[in-house]
Amino acid sequence: MSLSGAKQHEERSAPSREEPRSSPDHFEDEDGSSFIALHGATVLLVEDDALNREALELVFAYYGAHVISVDSASAALEQYERAAPAILVSDIVLPDGDGYALLRTIRACDRDLDHRLPAIAISGSLGVDANARAYAAGFDVFLAKPVNTSVLLLAMQQLMERTGD
Q1: 27 in a domain, yes or no?
Q2: Cys bridge to 70: 9, 12, 114, 150, which one at CB 3.0-4.6 A?
Q3: What is the pLDDT of residue 109?
């Protein structure tokens, strides 16, 4: 499934923090919601909008994730093969396809590997159809943009705990 011509990706690790906000394993957001840090989990982020991608990269890295960030479905498939991510966070509308097709391809690989990658869809497309299509494609969670990062981080934590990553 290796694809040539994939766009470059960026990787970010957690920036160093002098003092944790609560404890090394537990963080509390500005609105009081709490969640466990991402503890070096590899997050495959697929977002074609540069500002949204960079903002999410920074949030994920801050909470301890190793972030592999790409802007297309083809680059995501290439990185999926290389990196064995713990979770996928993907936009639905992408320049070379859509997140639905991307996840269907990943799910076919999951069957071959006897592993199911947790997946979160993020999209500016709202409505019952977008939500239903995301779940039909195999996404575990669908979140509308603008994404509430506390909700996203909590969903990521719950999905990774469920799969043991």
Answers
A1: no
A2: 9
A3: 86
Contact (Cβ atoms closer than 8 angstroms) between residue 37 and residue 130: no
Tell me the CATH number at 133.
Answer: 3.40.50.2300
Q: What is the pLDDT of residue 125?
A: 82
What are the structure tokens assigned to 30, written together? 């500005």
Confirm whether 109 is domain-assigned. yes
Pull the structure tokens for residue 57: 């990269």
135 in any annotated domain: yes
User: How many structural domains is the chain composed of?
Assistant: 1
Side-chain half-sphere of 116: how many Cα atoms within 13 Å? 11
Residues spanned by the domain of 53: 38-63+76-163
> Is 105 part of any domain?
yes
> Can you list the pairs that 77-82 forms with residues at least 24 positions away whose Cβ atoms lie under 8 Å?
77/1, 77/3, 77/6, 77/102, 77/105, 77/106, 78/2, 78/3, 78/6, 79/6, 79/9, 79/44, 80/44, 80/106, 80/109, 80/117, 81/1, 81/2, 81/109
Residues of the chain with pLDDT under 70: 1-36, 112, 164-165
